Amino acid sequence: MGALAMGQPKYVVLCDIAWAPFEWVSAKGAYLGFDLDVMRAIAILEGYEIEIRDTPFDSIIPAVIAGKGDIGASGFTINEERAQVVDFSEPYWTSDQAIVTRAGAGLDVAGALAAGRKVGAQRGTTGAGWVEEHYPDVTLVLYETYPEAVLDLLAGRLDAVVQDVDPSKQAVAQYPGLLEIAGIIETGEQFGFLVAKGDPKGILPLLSSGMAKLKDSGAWDLLVSAYFGPGLEEIEAAWEASIDILLVEKDVLKFAQTFAALVAE
Amino acid sequence: MTLEAWSQLWPKVPVLLQGLVVNLELLAGLLSLGLVIGVAVALVEVYAPRPFRALALAYEWFFRGVPELVLLFLFYFGPSQFGVDISAFLAAVLALGFRSSAYQSQIFRGAIQAISPGQSLAARSLGMSRLGVIRHVILPQALRLSLAGWSNEFSSVLKDTTLAYGIGVVEVMRQARYLTARNFPLALPAFIVVALMFLILTYAGNWGIGLLERRLRVPGLEARG
Amino acid sequence: MPLLRVEDLHKRYGTEEVLRGVSLTVVKGETKVVIGPSGTGKSTLLRCINRLTEPDRGRVWLGDTEVTGKGTNLNRIRSQIGFVFQDFNLFTHLTALDNVRLGPLRVKGLGKKEATERAMAELARVGLADKAGAYPAELSGGQQQRVSIARALAMDPQLILFDEPTSALDPELIGEVLGVMVKLAEEGMTMIVVTHEMGFARSVADEIVFMERGVIVEQGSPEKMFRSPEVARTGDFLRKISELYGDAA
């Protein structure tokens, strides 16, 4: 194994690690999340190494273009604008946008996005672009990270925050009784991993093949069940107890099974 | 901001301190780079022939005129156009260091010009070389006179180190954001703690420089104004 | 052979020609006093001799070395010509001892012990051994000028140029500086002194040079210059200066 590893190519994976449950930093300082474990698993299945580098979200595409990284894996929605400058893998996730408001505000989607409302979103995200395009009359406030937008919502400076459904659920879970999801807009945008235009290093076929293997073996669904639903602390505990199976034993399926089983307990 | 948030944050302070160490490393790197280049630029501005002087002034103008974040991006992404891959940390040290050198050169230039030209003349009359005059007469005085201005520059660049987060350096702000991404209610206490850390560092740094200033004080050699 | 030979020096600042062909010679052990109205190029003459100011034209020799020569090691030459400034120009950040010691240490390359001994000896020579640890700002003007003389002496120069060494001093401090200079003259130091101190000129100078508007008008022994100058303007100047500064006795 060690001798084999010597000859393996190494790819730099860029990710803005502040977007649970797709990617975040555990209490012990480890990088975890759905995107990252998928990246690790595919690397093992396809025989290459990765280095995960934390990079602010709106710097990831410039960095991939500049060759500072090989793969962008950070919940990127596939869209026309981005597809002009980078190449995407096939979609791996479908997401809708959620509108989060303060609990008891009595706002539905239409109310939260009515003219004159102040709506927060993370800079460079689909949610931000979506509000800008469809609701030009609301005041859009952009934030470096999603948590900052949520804090401003709690502080009463915003009426609503637009974000993908899963991170929105995480936010609401962290402030029981203070936040609620006013509604979900079925935008149906799809996430993809991205590489430099023209895929000069031939990475996309590896991602495609790796995703197929994960899905065929059942590991994919196990990871989904582990990451989407429970609270972050439960996920972290289970992940820490099982991650060595992936990183040391390099057994993808066994890791997914153990991880999912531990989370379910 | 609840008591619970504070009690959850408390065990995380070491993580923040870990991030702060990165800020301090950045600070040490950029200040030393800025000092060396700043002194050189100031000397060129005062003593070198006109074309070099113009070059030094252009350098100063550029690095004082471009916003820090833009410099960070230029230094991080720019070199890869030429096939050179530099780390985010190194890019931050270079970008912020060059920028600081432009400010430090102003401080030193002012200090050099505050030294009476007669002293250089006297040293030259002893047969001392130009470099000898700079080393033995100009710099020992200019550096002392610069300490007050340098104290300001220290406070300013200390804060600038948090901008390195913009190109992915995992420093204290980034660590604070890791915490808040995982646990939103920690945001306010975490940023309060970060603010306190910087206030303490600024105070300690200025105190240290002040101490150095008093230690090196010579009668008759004081910064004017 | 004269120790110093100056030949036809010219210097112009913009449209003003400050030196218009000055020549003079100084032999070893001689004290030459240069007098004349202010702005007549006396200080410029001194500075052109060791090329602190670059002359436009003319030549200067120290012994058989041409100071104005192309390949001349100027720093070496300067280390052999002491210079005492009107404003002392002591190094603010150094004690009296370090001011005097800097040249021997950094220019002559002496060891620390030897340089210190020499510096202390020169400070003693100007009567300031007890002020070795004082910074310039802690010394009176007269003491500062004496330190600057010690600084020049520590280089063991072949001659010393004095550029109005007492002009910046309060009257009561002039005496101590002149005292040191008289002693140096008596010990045989070669000196060119630009000054308005007529008492000093009369009693110490081997020769007095009267300059006006960039040229030497007349030169000769104090006896001749004070008693029977050949040029009328010399006499006028000496009378006027004696009224102003007193003591032509």
Indicate the mean pLDDT of chain B: 92
Tell me the structural class of chain B.
Answer: mainly alpha
The level of helicity of chain C is 25-40%
Rg of Cα set of chain C? 18 Å
CATH level 1 name of chain B: Mainly Alpha
- Counting structural domains of chain B, the number is 1
CATH level-1 class of chain C: Alpha Beta
The biggest sheet of chain C, with number of strands, parallel, antiparallel or mixed sense and barrel status, is:
6 strands, mixed
So how many helices of chain C?
A: 9
Major sheet size, sense and barrel closure of chain B = none
Number of domains of chain C: 1
Q: What is the approximate shape of chain C? A: globular
Name the CATH architecture of chain C. 3-Layer(aba) Sandwich
Sequence stretches where pLDDT stays below 50 over 5 or more residues of chain B: none
Derived structural class of chain C? alpha/beta
Low-pLDDT segments, ≥5 res of chain C: none
Task: Tell me the fraction of residues in β-strands of chain B, as a range.
Answer: under 5%
Describe the SSE topology:
The complex is a heterotrimer of chains A (265), B (225) and C (249).
Chain A (H helix, E strand, L loop, with lengths): L1 H5 L3 E6 L8 E2 L5 E2 L1 H13 L2 E6 L2 H10 L4 E2 L7 H4 L2 E3 L4 E10 L6 H4 L5 E5 L3 H9 L4 E5 L2 H9 L5 E5 H10 L4 E13 L2 E3 L7 H14 L1 H9 L4 H16 L4 H13 L1
Parallel strand pairs in A: 1-4, 1-5, 8-9, 8-10
Antiparallel strand pairs in A: 2-3, 5-12, 6-12, 7-10, 7-11
Helix pairs in contact in A: 2-9, 10-12, 11-12
Chain B lengths: L2 H7 L3 H35 L2 H16 L2 H10 L10 H26 L3 H9 L4 H31 L11 H11 L4 H29 L10
Helix pairs in contact in B: 2-3, 2-5, 2-8, 3-5, 4-5, 5-7, 6-7, 7-9, 8-9
Chain C lengths: L3 E10 L2 E11 L4 E5 L6 H8 L7 E6 L2 E2 L7 H6 L1 E4 L11 H11 L5 H14 L15 H13 L5 E5 L7 H16 L4 E4 L3 H7 L2 E6 L2 E6 L1 H6 L4 H14 L4
Parallel strand pairs in C: 3-8, 3-9, 6-7, 7-8
Antiparallel strand pairs in C: 1-2, 1-4, 4-5, 9-10
Helix pairs in contact in C: 3-4, 3-5, 4-5, 5-6
Structure description:
The complex is a heterotrimer of chains A (265), B (225) and C (249). With 265 residues, chain A is of the alpha/beta class. Chain A has helices at residues 2-6, 34-46, 57-66, 80-83, 109-112, 126-134, 146-154, 165-174, 204-217, 219-227, 232-247, 252-264; strands spanning 10-15, 24-25, 31-32, 49-54, 71-72, 86-88, 93-102, 118-122, 139-143, 160-164, 179-191, 194-196. Chain A has 2 domains: 8-92 and 192-264, Periplasmic binding protein-like II (D-Maltodextrin-Binding Protein, domain 2); 96-189, D-Maltodextrin-Binding Protein, domain 2 (3-Layer(aba) Sandwich), CATH 3.40.190.10. Helices cover 44% and strands 23% of the residues of chain A. A 5-stranded mixed beta sheet of chain A has the order 4-1-5-12-6, with helices on both faces. A 5-stranded mixed beta sheet of chain A has the order 9-8-10-7-11, sandwiched between helices. In chain A, helix 2 packs across helix 9, helix 10 packs parallel to helix 12 (252-264) and helix 11 runs antiparallel to helix 12. The longest helix of chain A is centred in the last third of the chain and has 16 residues, at 232-247. Chain B has one domain: MetI-like (MetI-like fold). Chain B has helices spanning 3-9, 13-47, 50-65, 68-77, 88-113, 117-125, 130-160, 172-182, 187-215. The relative contact order of chain B is 0.16. Chain C has one domain: Rossmann fold (3-Layer(aba) Sandwich). Chain C is built from 9 helices and 10 strands. Chain C has helices spanning 42-49, 74-79, 96-106, 112-125, 141-153, 171-186, 198-204, 222-227, 232-245, and strands at residues 4-13, 16-26, 31-35, 57-62, 65-66, 81-84, 159-163, 191-194, 207-212, 215-220. In chain C, strand 7, helix 6 (171-186) and strand 8 form a beta-alpha-beta unit. The longest helix of chain C is centred in the last third of the chain and has 16 residues, at 171-186. The model of chain C has no long low-confidence stretch (mean pLDDT 94). Chains A and B meet through strand 2, helix 3 and helix 7 of A and helix 4 and helix 8 of B.
